[in-house]
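Aim 2, interim progress: modelling of the glutamine-bound target.
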Amino acid sequence: MRTAVIGYPRVGKDRELKFASEKYFKNEISEKEIQDIAKNLRKEHIELQKDSGIDFISVNDFSFYDNMLDVATLFNIIPDRYRQLGLSDLDTYFAMARGYQGEKGNVKALAMKKWFNTNYHYIVPEIDDDTQIKLVGTKPFDEYKEAVDCKVDAKVCIIGPFTFLKLAKFTGSKGIADFEQDLAKEYVNYLSKLSETGVEWAEFDEPYLVKDLSLDDIKLFERLYRVLLAGKSGVKVLLQTYFGDVRDIYNLLIQLDFDGIGLDFFEGKQTKELVKKNGFPGDKLLFAGVVCGKNIWKNNYAKSLEIIKELKVIAGEDNIVVNTSCSLLHVPYTLESEQKIPAEYKMHFAFAKEKLAELKDIAELASEKDGKVVISSGKYTANAELFKSRPDSADENVRKRVAGIKKSDYDRLPKFKEREEIQKDKLGLPLFPTTTIGSFPQTADVRKNRQDYRKGNISKEQYIAFNRDKIKKCIEFQEEIGLDVLVHGEYERNDMVEYFGEHLAGYVFTEKAWVQSYGTRCVKPPIIWGDVSRKEPITVEWSKYAKSCTNKPMKGMLTGPVTILNWSFPREDISIKESILQLALAIRDEVLDLEKAGIEIIQIDEAALREKLPLRKSDWYTDYLDFAIPAFRLVHSGVKPETQIHTHMCYSEFTDIIPVIDAMGADVITFEASRSDLQILDSLKANNFKTEVGPGVYDIHSPRVPSVEEIVDALGKMRDRIDDKKLWINPDCGLKTRGVPETKASLINLVKAAQVVRG
Ligand code: GLN
Ligand code: ZN
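Predicted structure of the complex, ligand included:
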């Protein structure tokens, strides 16, 4: 049986691409140098997959920033404002991704959104009425040739036209219908170019197919692919889906002239049933995604083989390819980089490289004749043993506490309106209060202080003294420029989830398990191993100290249970609901301790709440919101009426769940609004949103400094839609990834803008 990989991580196991890109942005290395580094990484990843015996290896899974942006540039979908900068191709590309501010002009970046239900972000391509769709790039062909140099006949993957069009933004009066033919034609061109290059297999990724599809969607898909498949030019076409099942379109997929279809058997609740019920044509390959591309647990071979056994009967042994469930982009590189995880834990994990071996094992085991041989195989028994030998992870106290949660524990009293008045009286803030989202720039010295402490080079006292000094200066700066609600700057945190995880029982940590979040930003999700509880107060000392430095209100900063869970690698042996409640109780203890320490405003970040909303509407409540929202309420329901609870969310893609957000029971919510349109504000108004709001007035994901006029302008639009008494002024996210100079300049402008609108 053959094996395939949808995509491999690309930043490098030591984040080489990240560091090279950052140097390139600072003009420290040339374009040639960054191109060489990228090329070496691609080669390394291909060689690795080849040596692991993978039969279908992808190329063009590489990206300098994002694959949606790659498709846009491949097909000439470059808004004029970027073209007009007159930069090189690579710099134009980066200008779209990150914005540009320099001698050639001043433009914001394209919007960025979460990629389906992952923590990876894609760049939203913009199509305007004058866009001329045309195959102009050569990246996929070049990367195919690179693989040939490594003696690999790779499949060339690309995001398919359907997903691309569904996710693109149309800025003029034209829409999908006006561009679909042109795009389909250029994809055909692309296929013919692949054919000329000697490519055997082309992979089209269409994750959008796992969402709820309308009849129009299905028709659009069919029109696009009828054209595409009629122009195959002899290239075999694999339609790859992931992140769920394709229940709305399965029957059409199996009728169309695809040569292979990739299905997700891990997240696709109905995938197996679909195949069993509707069959699978004998003239196509079935790429069976049984090795999870999202989580880090070892594959359970018995389960995977069970699936494959059933598929064999339907599709025929030779037509099955053992596949990952989605790109391996979402898991870290390799366990080999982990020196500190105790062996009894480590043996339960598989990162990208280890997953390659799993694919191979499963393919081998599945090819053996059923029954005795499989059972006697060493690999099989070793794997089966693993699932019996999990070190104990249950904590009776935690289980009892969760079981004892009462219905009333989910409700905060008094009601919002009453609290709002009490808080206004107590805090005495001006109209349009200004604040930040929490973190201040994590400069090299801040990171070094943490590292030195971690390595034992400095004492705990030295570590604390350094951070206190930072906090003090940060507060002085905030006072000096006139912000109203201050923060301590989060200098003690490596990451908003890992930091909390480190203070919670039940977690396992990694050293180099980086996963790309967007562009050069990588995160290192900790692993939830067992039942979770708070070991000791986490942030209280820092907040108390910060509070002692100022008379202004100090905001305490916590990460909420839903985000901690969503940005960790979750357990698969207990339910998500159970895990979230455990986390909620742990953070609840911290909230109450902060309140006791005199912190009158507490922000509980739920940056990732929207992210794990199931892709299908029918699952939204039962599979997620029905327990995620109560869990958040549980965290803060114990505070006094005068304690103001804030929450923060990255991205404002919650137009469709506004009542749910209101029901979280926070007093203030801040969120991203600057890099997307203002549609969210209209929806807030339409839904009579009661929570006070701070829609971010500028984009912190880009180094660009917003001008006072720009912010005043944004505020004008906000005031048209939000009651003045409910509007807060803040950046759209934490400032930790930004440099000091741009942060200062931006915040000074933000406060000035507040003064202008107050005037
Ligand atoms: N309080 C966090 C910070 O400022 C929030 C980060 C986030 O939303 N991702 O860094
Ligand atoms: Zn944020």
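Residues 449 and 466 are 7 Å apart (CA to CA). The two ends are 72 Å apart (CA to CA).
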